[in-house]
TrEMBL record:
<dbReference type="InterPro" id="IPR041698">
    <property type="entry name" value="Methyltransf_25"/>
</dbReference>
<keyword id="KW-0808">Transferase</keyword>
<dbReference type="InterPro" id="IPR029063">
    <property type="entry name" value="SAM-dependent_MTases_sf"/>
</dbReference>
<dbReference type="InterPro" id="IPR050508">
    <property type="entry name" value="Methyltransf_Superfamily"/>
</dbReference>
<protein>
    <submittedName>
        <fullName>Methyltransferase type 11</fullName>
    </submittedName>
</protein>
<feature type="domain" description="Methyltransferase">
    <location>
        <begin position="56"/>
        <end position="152"/>
    </location>
</feature>
<keyword id="KW-0489">Methyltransferase</keyword>
<dbReference type="GO" id="GO:0008168">
    <property type="term" value="F:methyltransferase activity"/>
</dbReference>
<dbReference type="GO" id="GO:0032259">
    <property type="term" value="P:methylation"/>
</dbReference>
<dbReference type="Pfam" id="PF13649">
    <property type="entry name" value="Methyltransf_25"/>
</dbReference>
Length: 260
């Protein structure tokens, strides 16, 4: 019996830009069907945003999982992300799909836009939790509020850290996908600090077929913000209308905060 050959790449602890620059070309392997996820998430967020034609900033757009679908539905979306490699891929994906998606590499704590530029800002899929201190989170939220027009809304999502802070999970279930004739298995290991509110996560991705597999391990750190903590920081940033939506209410797989 011939055993498969496995090559392993280990990366050191990295900041969000380094992590997602390294991950940009493989990020779609997180999804069993990335295109289906793009379409499904676009329907979810379009229902929260309302009428198409609005100007939307996705300030943590990554490779475009939310922005691409919303642009296809007629929203005028601009995408920014701290990772230049991710926004470059989002731009390529938009061109391949024939949708308009202006992009820029930018830290959400210093957005390169004038005041009152957007009808809504999107910051979803746990992106804000890469900011590890309260002042940094407040700065990021103030920036989203600054670029919002009067009456505009921030739509933000994080993992269910209320539950995770109680149970302190050590791993995520493996996710399986197949693309370009290769299988991809993705999972994480979580290493909580002694205070139980931040954790290092090891992200493993195994890709390959019968005879040869490649495993890549990436490591970074997250702040497990509870809904109460995030609500307090949003209030400090100047948001006064806060509404939390459970996954059963929003259709998204994480708790969603709608703030205005």
């Amino acid at each position: 019996m011939r055993l498969p050959r496995v090559s392993v790449t280990l990366t050191p602890m990295s900041n969000p830009r380094e992590f997602y620059d390294d991950f940009a070309e493989a990020y779609d392997g997180m999804f069993a069907d990335w295109d289906a996820s793009i379409a499904r998430q676009a329907r979810v967020f379009a229902a929260l945003l309302g009428e198409a034609g609005q100007t939307i900033l996705d300030c943590s757009c990554g490779i475009g999982t939310q922005a691409l679908g919303l642009a296809a539905l007629g929203f005028h979306v601009t995408g920014t992300d701290i990772s230049p490699a991710s926004v470059a891929r989002a731009r390529r994906e938009a061109a391949a799909r024939g949708v308009a998606l202006p992009t820029a590499a930018a830290d959400m704590r210093a957005l390169p836009f004038l005041d009152d530029s957007f009808d809504a800002v999107l910051c979803v899929d746990n992106a804000l939790c890469h900011v590890l201190d309260a002042d940094g989170v407040v700065t990021a939220l103030r920036e989203t509020r600054r670029v919002l027009r009067g009456g505009g809304r921030l739509i933000l999502s994080v993992r269910d850290y209320d539950e995770a802070r109680r149970s302190r999970p050590r791993r995520t279930p493996p996710q399986l996908s197949r693309r370009d004739g290769q299988w991809c298995v993705t999972f994480q290991l979580w290493h909580w600090d002694r205070h139980g509110d931040r954790y290092d996560f090891e992200h493993f991705q195994l890709r390959g077929s019968r005879g040869e597999w490649r495993m890549r391990r990436r490591v970074s750190r997250l702040w497990a913000l509870t809904r109460e903590e995030l609500g307090e920081l949003a209030s400090r940033a100047g948001f006064s209308r806060l509404e939390w939506l459970a996954p059963a209410d929003s259709g998204f797989y994480q708790p969603v905060l709608v703030a205005g």
